[in-house]
Amino acid sequence: xxxxxxxxxxxxxxxxxxxxxxxxxxxxxxxxxxxxxxxxxxxxxxxxxxxxxxxxxxxxxxxxxxxxxxxxxxxxxxxxxxxxxxxxxxxxxxxxxxxxxxxxxxxxxxxxxxxxxxxxxxxxxxxxxxxxxxxxxxxxxxxxxxxxxxxxxxxxxxxxxxxxxxxxxxxxxxxxxxxxxxxxxxxxxxxxxxxxxxxxxxxxxxxxxxxxxxxxxxxxxxxxxxxxxxxxxxxxxxxxxxxxxxxxxxxxxxxxxxxxxxxxxxxxxxxxxxxxxxxxxxxxxxxxxxxxxxxxxxx
Length: 299
Prior knowledge:
10 strands, globular, alpha/beta, 3-stranded mixed sheet, about 30% helix
């Protein structure tokens, strides 16, 4: 894939794209996004503003739809597994690839195969560019960062007593959503880090695997330790944990899909509304497409 900037002759457009081009990074399991026609609609007409990078199970037969919106790169992948650092490794590979692939990539959005968009692409794009409340008026990363004492204790000691010391003191350990949007500055922090990574890639104790969610701990802890003012403290991806099952959030089924659901999922306690939501079953494609133009991709 060539850089979007190479397809335009206008110096003004070129300079803007170098600053604000967005790669949308998908962390995938064996299948591409089930509602891929919905994502096709989301991306359509904005191919010069994003790059797509896909991390897929190496044993899956995965293909990209032959359309301009899905022009993307498959990142050399290794199998991932829950309760292990493999999901962190996958995210780091995606981010490193996107950083090296195109210098115009300024935001890095990590999503899963079960995510759907809640707003049209321009709304996401403008949201990322409008947030400049960080140090010196710089853009911030949208990553959830929490320090709830009740939730942290078992997670911190999942690898054993005092294993995280001295690099990660107990009072600096954080957790949050595994899905986020990072600025280029923070993406570079992630791929350069070795100090914290040496701790978070250690295996969890078998008896404490129920508290082992490395991908929910590593990124919030790293960024909160290195640049807390550069982070919003919340994610743009809505997840319903009200009826979780063995660590998995609620999965929406076709009968639940409606205009009112989309509008409810958009609501946020933060400054901005949610841009994405999960988890949606593959069977949700038909009802999602029925409301795509009238609700999902219309503000």
